[in-house]
Amino acid sequence: MGIKKSNKVSQAAVLKQMMKKCSSSIGKKDGYDVPKGHFPVYVGVNRSRYIVPISFLTHPEFQQLLRHAEEEFGFHHHMGLTIPCEEPVFRSLTTSMLR
């Protein structure tokens, strides 16, 4: 049980670090406003830009996508928060999280 708690603390620290890293891209970029409480992600081979609510960070499915992004790209790149996922899969997943 102690391992799970430690793992949750670790995940929270990683999520905070990711938000801090991508905070420079929050706000006005590429002519688009990002509403308060949201952040941009780039998805798929075309790096399509999506604006998602910060509340997604608490969803295990989205956390899995973030772990996959970390494994693929790491935290030290200048391409914005890129999710290595096909766009239809990402849209389906995020749509289900809004319900």
Based on the model shown, name its key terms.
99 residues; alpha+beta; three-stranded mixed β-sheet; 3 helices; 3 strands
Structure description:
With 99 residues, the protein is α+β, with helices and mostly antiparallel strands. It is 47% helix and 14% strand. It contains three helices and three strands. It has helices at residues 2-22, 60-73, 87-98, and strands spanning 38-43, 48-53, 82-83. The protein has a three-stranded mixed sheet with strand order 2-1-3. The longest helix has 21 residues, at 2-22. It is globular and about 30 Å long.
Question: Can you describe this structure in just a few lines?
Answer:
The chain is α+β, with helices and mostly antiparallel strands and 99 residues long. Helix content is 47%, strand content 14%.
User: What series of H and E elements makes up the topology?
Assistant: HEEHEH
Q: What's the N-to-C terminus distance?
A: 30 Å
Radius of gyration: 14 Å
Mean pLDDT over all positions: 79
The helicity comes to: 40-55%
Look at the helices and sheets and give the structural class.
alpha+beta
Number of strands: 3
Strand content: 5-15%
**Number of helices, counting only DSSP H or I runs of 4 residues or more:** 3
Task: Please describe the biggest sheet, giving its number of strands, its sense, and whether it closes into a barrel.
Answer: 3 strands, mixed
Query: Strand order across the biggest sheet?
Result: 2-1-3
Low-confidence parts: 23-27
Overall 3D form: globular
